[in-house]
Amino acid sequence: MLAIKKPRNARSKRAMDKRQPQLNEGVKSALIVNASHSSALVSKAIHQLSTLKKPHAIPFTKKKSNDVNPFVDSGSIEFWCAKNDTPLMLVGDSRKKRKDNLTWIRLFDGRVLDMLEMGIDSMKGVEEFKPPTLPDIGSRPIFQFSGPQFSADAASLYPAHAHLKSLLLDFYRGEEVLENGIPTGGSVALQNGLQFVISVTAGPIDEQTGGAGSSTGQGTSLADLYAAGAASSSTNGIGSSSSPSIDTSASGAKIYFRTYSLVVPPKTPARAIPSSFELHECGPTFDFTLRRRQAADATLLSHSLKRGKTQAEKNRQGKSDTYKKNIETDEMGDMVGRIHVGKQDLTNLQTRKMKGLKAGKEEDEDEDDSDEELEALSEDDDDEEDAYMGLGNDSDEDEEEEDEDEELEMEQLAAGSADEDDEPAESAPKGAANGKKRGRKA
């Protein structure tokens, strides 16, 4: 395994945090390797299978530098996957004992979890179908597994087929739709989202090949369908890739891999749910033969199946029978609760608690003065209202008498001024006038 270095800056720290286990994992990338000992058929098959995995496929096609032996040495596999941050790997090789071979590999925590080997009997590429059709890059397929060997009840009888089913679903799972931060388990839009179907059919199994059951007693239940190395894990601790347990009980079983494009009738409205579909074989198609497989160690498998608690589960704070009521979790992961409070007694509520809010002596005197002014203004307003309503008749009579007296005085003054205008003006002495002028100069 690679040594974990301490990040030097924020960018490298974010990259390392992105590689750490997440609560909701994204799409698993796959490393597609064409080994040094290969053939033209294997190279073509590797290219076709990587096309279905795009854009989450990392191809390595240089044969000279790709020396990989999956069931012999897993050190190179673990190194390559750790270097490229890929938990899945597909290796194609062709040797004297096993020609045209494909090995599906899955890793967990930087170690090989399980492997399955299949031989290629025949294949047809996408270009051999007319017209050639390919789904959009990144679209999710729907899988159809035909045959009693793939049923959940038959997992104990056919562990190799259950192993293949799990590998294919994990390999081409794609990006899952999240609802409130939780994966929905494979929701795909019926129109424009679902574009192709992968059909995997199990051929008839010959009883002489031992495919109907395991001679070594492996795969007794669905939970132990990968646990072929459970017997050796008790002596070696956690399963190690250096001492694997190889199972060949299903060797020789036929698997038919077909790909169909899904065509919607042309007259279907845009937002309507189509009532029928048409399937057209578009390729690639393969005829496989099961060979060897290495099942996952029981202890390592239990660690890989663990799932961290979501924030909503942490906020519940109790078991299923003792969950706290009125507690919810919003989309941001924050806990939101409702508190039911009884009726509060406000009679003894203290409103003034700060000294600055208390009234001083000066404020009390100002309040008294303002009260007196308000009382005086209110009395004046009352007098005006009484006068307006006709309550003061005596005052009106007095005002009329005063008006008559003023008119008489004005008439007398006017008569006196007229008499003065008729008399000649007396000439003033010259000395007095000169005295006035001299006085002004002085």
Shape, per Cα inertia axes = elongated
Number of helices: 10
CATH topology of the domain at 28-176 and 188-305: Rossmann fold
Helix % is 25-40%
Average pLDDT rating: 75
Q: Give the name of the CATH superfamily of the domain at 28-176 and 188-305.
A: Brix domain
Radius of gyration: 50 Å
- Coarse structural class: alpha+beta
The total beta strand count reads 15
CATH architectural category of the domain at 28-176 and 188-305: 3-Layer(aba) Sandwich
- The level-1 CATH class of the domain at 28-176 and 188-305: Alpha Beta
Strand content: 15-25%
* Largest sheet geometry: 11 strands, mixed
Cα distance spanning the termini? 126 Å
Order of helices and strands: HEHEHEEEEHEEEHEEEEHHEEHHH
Low-confidence stretches: 207-242
Written account of the structure:
The chain is of the alpha+beta class. It is built from ten helices and 15 strands. It has a domain of 267 residues: Brix domain (Rossmann fold). The strands form three sheets. Strands 1, 2, 3, 4, 5, 6, 9, 10, 11, 12 and 13 form an eleven-stranded mixed β-sheet that branches. A two-stranded antiparallel ribbon has the order 7-8. The longest helix is centred in the last third of the chain and has 30 residues. The radius of gyration is 50 Å and the shape is elongated.
